[in-house]
Amino acid sequence: MQRVLIAGISGAGKTTMARVLESRLGLPRHELDALHHGPGWTKRPEFESDVERFSSQPRWVTEDQYHQFLHDLLWERADTVIWLDLPRRTVMHRVVRRSLAYALSRKELWNGNWERVRDWIDPGHPIRWAWSQHERRRTITVERIGRHPHLTVVRLRTAREARRWLAGLATHSRDA
């Protein structure tokens, strides 16, 4: 597990999982949202070249996002996909809680951007997107897995499964 791609819908816990794997496995973590979003929520022109650069390295962990720009690049280069295939109720609870916390705290997210409650009406907002695309994202992930048989896939269907898997990984890492 040297090149790890974390798949799942918004709110599934991709960034959190990537942070844990960064810490436990010493993998360099690359946050695609930080690489993608420029000021005013615009796409940074360097996005694809930044992803090309880090993904050509022997070790990394990142989230599966921005397929419309990256196509299958990360899937082709990864050796492992951790698929957080959580129930819609879990995802929605998480994504609403996260968006509310971001909006109320006015925490800067990436490159001078922050979330506002009024942004929630945008169909592309993570809350609306997670709701409307939950089943579609699952279908797409299954298709991508089928196109990339070289990958080791770890499919985690609940938050409890994810915690147990991480606990086992920590035990395995200490034994190695």
Account of the protein in words:
With 176 residues, this protein is of the alpha/beta class. The chain contains 8 helices and 5 strands. The protein has a 5-stranded parallel sheet, with helices on both faces. Helix 6 packs across helix 7. The longest helix is centred in the C-terminal third of the chain and has 22 residues. It is globular and about 40 Å long. The mean pLDDT is 93.
Query: Could you tell me the mean pLDDT?
Result: 93
Q: In order across it, which strands form the biggest sheet?
A: 2-3-1-4-5
Write the H/E string, N to C. Answer: EHEHHEHHEHHEH
Q: Compute the number of strand runs.
A: 5
What fraction strand? 5-15%
How far apart are the termini? 13 Å
| Structural class by secondary-structure content | alpha/beta
Question: Radius of gyration in whole Å, from Cα?
Answer: 16 Å
Silhouette: globular
Low-confidence stretches: none
Helix content bin: 40-55%
User: Count of DSSP helices?
Assistant: 8
Biggest sheet, open or closed, and with what strands and sense? 5 strands, parallel
Please provide a brief summary of the model.
Helix content is 52%, strand content 12%.
Key traits:
alpha/beta; globular; about 180 residues
Secondary structure elements and pairings:
Blueprint: E1 3-7, H1 14-25, E2 29-30, H2 32-36, H3 47-55, E3 60-63, H4 67-70, H5 73-77, E4 80-84, H6 88-105, H7 126-147, E5 152-156, H8 159-175
Parallel strand pairs: 1-3, 1-4, 2-3, 4-5
Helix pairs in contact: 6-7
